[in-house]
Design a protein that fits this description.
Number of strands of chain B: 12
Structural class of chain A: alpha/beta
CATH architecture of the largest domain in chain B: 2-Layer Sandwich
Structural class of chain B: alpha/beta
Oligomer: heterodimer
Helix content of chain A: 40-55%
Number of helices of chain A: 4
Number of domains of chain B: 4
CATH topology of the largest domain in chain B: Heat Shock Protein 90
Number of strands of chain A: 6
CATH architecture of chain A: 2-Layer Sandwich
Number of helices of chain B: 15
Distance between the termini of chain A: 16 Å
CATH superfamily of chain A: STAS domain
Largest sheet of chain B: 5 strands, mixed
Radius of gyration of chain B: 34 Å
CATH topology of chain A: Transcription Regulator spoIIAA
Order of helices and strands of chain B: HHHEHEEHEEHHHEEHEHEHEHEHEHH
Distance between the termini of chain B: 78 Å
Radius of gyration of chain A: 13 Å
Strand order of the largest sheet of chain A: 1-2-3-4-5-6
CATH superfamily of the largest domain in chain B: Histidine kinase-like ATPase, C-terminal domain
CATH class of chain A: Alpha Beta
């Protein structure tokens, strides 16, 4: 389940395409708008290749500051028709703050913050068997 | 040690908050790689600062957009108004062109198709010629306004004798005024030898022709007067021209519009008076090219006075001549702000006195009878001199002098009257007049006499001086 298919690097971030239409993003450092745009283009292109909707599993443990414009781009990704769920997680307080800023900008129900990867993944997969 | 580091980190956050509170959104708090609660706090603050900065920028942009929208709205209204005026202009122009064309083609047709006596033929040819000239005027107006709008009109400076120019216009317009039974008069503000100015004579001529022409056109009864005077305003010497009529007048609302292209007064339109509505726009443009300004004072139903001024440059002969006169005659005292009351029932004489005295004071009141003179004297405690006519309706001038003298023995009162019989002068002096000028009043004597009394000091000046001495 959720076997890795391929892996990419954009900036300091790692993107792993996993089974079950999941893009696993491990963030590292700040998220300026230019990087966010690049990521958006990459993610939506990958999602376009998938059969069905795509979910994002975003590890914010080492995430840096997200510009307001970058947060808007997260909102666009979450809002895209190809997107199923966006599950963010991070144990440290910084990750929680960032996630709340991003989720606060978006305000949609398909983006949530979890304490760890396990819970996040479980939410993504929730209802898949039904 | 850790406590000290944490204390410094908190201190950095506090400093950042203080800067933000003062409106500095460029500040950011350092975030360490510990990603602990203090870093979370720092990160949160950094992101909040970013949000505030963005909000401030957005607010500014919104303000600019609002401003831009307002400007767009105004431009839109202006464009609509301009479009409306152009349409009205086209309709008017169409009418203006068709009317003389009607005359030209109609009478040409008559000449062609009828056997007419020589006398009739000449009459018809005359009418064709008149209509042709009217057409030419319209075409000239259109060409002029087009050249002005294309900025092809420039200033052509030459030496112009203003009196000669006005004299020519007087001769030109006299027959037309006579035909309408209007009194046409000309007031020359300077002697011929001093009325020489370096300016664009053609444009000056065009403006005056247009204004006098309008004055005659819009006046059914009464008079048209034109002329000029030298003015000193804000250290600048200017030649101020005026054209006064007793015509239909212009409403306050129209006064603000008549200098715009394609605009005519509503009254002119209602009365179906011919005209393209371009004349005043051309005049305004010409006056502005001459570095002057044009304006109007008018009372609907009573008449209008159009003014325009042109600068008198310091190197001009006129300026030198005026300076010379100033040095010898006028400039010895500063009378500009002193108030003079002219009492005169004849509007023409009253106007002449007002214009003549404007070189001495810019604060001249006019009363039309003795009672009004007394009232104005009472209402104006800063009055410096009274020029009193004697034969007046309602209350005679000598009665008015007696009343004024009961309350004030200081203010100079100069009688100006046609009573020139032996003993009249003594009588007037006896009742309290300081001096006497016989009608017709000669301008140089008038100026010298008035200046002489103003130089001695009026009531206000004497009081002012004495209060200063006491101090």
């Amino acid at each position: 389940m959720n076997r890795e298919i391929s892996q990419y690097h954009i900036g300091n971030n790692t993107y792993t395409i996993r089974e079950g239409n999941i893009i696993h993003i491990v963030t590292h450092g700040d998220f300026p708008v230019e990087l966010a745009l690049e990521i958006k283009n990459f993610c939506l292109a990958q999602a376009g290749k998938m059969d069905g909707k795509c979910s994002y599993l975003v590890d914010l443990t080492n995430c840096g500051k997200n510009d307001p414009a970058a947060r808007e781009i997260w909102k666009e990704i979450s809002n895209d028709a190809s997107t199923n769920k966006v599950a963010t997680f991070g144990m440290n307080p910084v990750a929680r703050v960032i996630a709340n800023f991003v989720i606060g900008t978006y305000g949609g129900v398909n983006m949530r913050l979890f304490r760890n990867e396990k819970d996040a993944l479980a939410w993504i997969l929730e209802g898949e068997d039904q | 040690m850790t406590n000290k580091i944490n204390q410094d980190r908190i201190e950095a956050i506090t400093e950042a908050i203080i800067k933000v509170a003062r409106g500095d959104f460029s500040v950011q708090v350092p975030v360490t790689d510990k990603y602990d609660h203090i870093d979370a706090l720092a990160m949160g603050i950094n992101m909040m600062i970013d949000d505030l900065k963005l909000k401030e920028e957005t607010d500014k942009e919104n303000e600019q957009i609002k401003l831009l929208n307002k400007e767009l709205e105004e431009a839109k209204l202006k464009a609509e108004e301009s479009e409306r005026l152009k349409m009205a202009f086209l309709a008017n122009m169409s009418h203006e062109i068709r009317t003389p064309m009607n005359g030209i083609l109609g009478f040409a047709d008559l000449l062609k198709s009828h056997v007419l006596p020589e006398e009739k033929k000449l009459e018809f040819i005359g009418l064709i010629e008149k209509s042709g000239n009217r057409m030419l005027d319209i075409i000239n107006d259109i060409v002029d306004i087009s050249r002005i709008e294309s900025k092809l009109v420039t200033k052509n400076i030459s030496t112009v004798n203003i009196n000669d120019l006005l004299e020519q216009q007087y001769k030109f317009f006299k027959p037309r005024a006579k035909q309408k039974e209007l009194k046409l008069s000309l007031h020359k503000g300077l002697p011929d030898e001093n009325s020489v100015l370096e300016t664009d004579g053609q444009k000056l001529n065009a403006v005056l022709i247009n204004l006098v022409n309008n004055a005659i056109k819009y006046t059914k009864t009464g008079q048209v007067e034109f002329g000029y005077a030298i003015r000193q305003n804000d250290g600048q010497t200017k030649l101020e021209f005026y054209v006064r009529d007793t015509g239909i007048g212009i409403s306050k609302e129209d006064q603000a519009l008549i200098f715009d292209r394609f605009t005519r007064s509503k009254k002119a339109d209602m009365d179906a008076i011919e005209g393209t509505g371009l004349g005043l726009a051309i005049s305004k443009a010409y006056v502005e090219i001459l570095d002057g300004k044009i304006w109007v004072e008018s009372v609907e139903g009573e008449g209008s006075v159009f003014y325009f001024d042109v600068p008198v440059t310091e190197d001009s002969k006129m300026y030198q001549a005026v300076r010379q006169v100033d040095k010898t005659d006028v400039a010895t005292i500063d009378c500009a702000g002193k108030k003079i009351l002219v009492v005169e029932d004849d509007p023409v004489s009253g106007y002449f006195l007002k214009i003549a005295l404007q070189g001495l004071s810019n604060n001249i009141l006019v009363a039309r009878d003795g009672q009004e003179a007394v009232d104005m004297f009472m209402d104006n405690p800063d009055l410096c001199l009274i020029l009193m006519d004697i034969s007046l309706p309602r209350m005679r001038g000598d009665e008015a002098v007696k009343i004024i003298r009961k309350t004030n023995t200081e203010i100079p009162i100069i009688a100006q009257t046609a009573y020139c019989m032996e003993g009249d002068k003594e009588h007037l002096k006896a009742i309290g007049c300081n001096d006497y000028l016989g009608k017709p009043v000669k301008m140089d004597l008038l100026l010298k006499t008035v200046q002489n009394y103003m130089e001695r000091g009026c009531t206000r000046c004497l009081k002012y001086k004495s209060s200063n001495v006491e101090k």
